[in-house]
Design goal:
- The structure is a single chain.
- This protein is of the alpha+beta class.
- It folds into 2 domains: 10-133 and 159-191, PmbA/TldD fold; 236-450, no CATH class.
- Strand 1 (35-51) and strand 2 (54-72) form a beta hairpin.
- It contains 9 helices and 17 strands.
- One of its GO terms (cellular component) is cytosol.
- Residues 242-449 form the Metalloprotease TldD/E C-terminal domain.
- Belongs to the peptidase U62 family.
Amino acid sequence: MSLVSTVDSSQQDLDRLATLAEDTIRRARAAGATQAEVSASVDVGLNVNVRLGEVETVEHTRDRGFALTVYFGQRKGSASTADLNPDSIQATIDQACAIARFTEDDPASGLAEADRMATSFPDLDLWHPWDLDVDRAIALGQEIEDAGRAIAGITNSDGSSVSAGQSLSVYANSHGFLGRERGTRHSLSVALIAGDDDDGMQRDYWYDSQRRAADFMDPAAIGRKAAERTLARLNARRLGTRQAPVLFAPEISRSLIGHLLGAVSGGSLYRRSSFLLDHVGKQILPSWFRIDEKPLIPRAMGSSVFDAEGVATIDAPLIVDGVLSRYILGSYSARKLGLTSTGNAGGVHNLLVKTGDDDFAGMLRKLGTGLLVTEVMGQGVSIITGDYSRGASGFWVENGEIAYPVEEITIAANLRDMYANLVAVGNDVDRRSHILTGSWLIENMTIAGE
């Protein structure tokens, strides 16, 4: 497998984007803008889908984006284009300026503060082009799917996918800031089917996602893992309604952190639509719990030197000893709240959740008798009230051992209670995301079934 592209023009492409961004800012200022900022990007990729050994789709992508925001005092206008030709860029400048001239003043609008701009740009090892041609991608997809289909009991396939992606981006503003980023993200996945129409069918999947293709798990192992997960779901039962402890698998636990982030993010807070309003300095999780944001981890999925406004990112705790240390803010939401940006315009970077000593088997033993959740469905989560109610499937566990699969159930509680009643976090960390956490054991939830 060839892992390094023989021709890498990324630096020259970044130079062209940077020159275009800086020129656009100069032209916007000449048109009367007091401040201006540009985000420009080019994303290139190959995606191949294989099903039952045959090629279903081959997709080459090259997407471009160019967005300009101008400020006339505290009046804001934005426009964007995917066409980088001079006429289109000029039209984008004209449109953004026209919009700004007719909007109302917003005291919170404007660029992030100049003294918050990043000034150091270490190499975070995010650029690992994968010189993947179509034939090799097809062969990889077939290898993954064949490994899964070879497992006894697998009766069909939803197909495998092989994806290689490269992203270049530039952010510039009229403070004189110019930041360049380049990153790669590649993935392998497969979804398989077991059972038949008479006895019932089940579907499950597995995947891997990496910055560098050399870091993938064995492709055949992805197929086997998907097959094992699919077969384990056969003969699933429904549960009677009850109260029980619930263990969330690591890839599902991430969603619980996602709800927490939604509740402590600026937009929810200044709109006063969060159940964690005014909770900085208050305990919301057990005293042993901690989350740290670490944006500068080499080769990690969420690493970045600066945020979407050019503000330098820094290592900073989010939760210490169960206490919420800060909110998640860009400059606009910070001004609305009378606070300062936390360097999170555009979202969080790498979040590391403090884990306990138990691996997945240990977490099952700690669960004892209760529900292991491996899939959640639906949108039944309110960030305003904290009410949580989602469809789920997984496994009923008895005496620390998986007893049988379950499906067509609903799990419900309030997020405030779920966080307060977190029993343990496993060391079975799922590293395929910018949110790094193990499984979560919640003391008690309502399980609604038959």
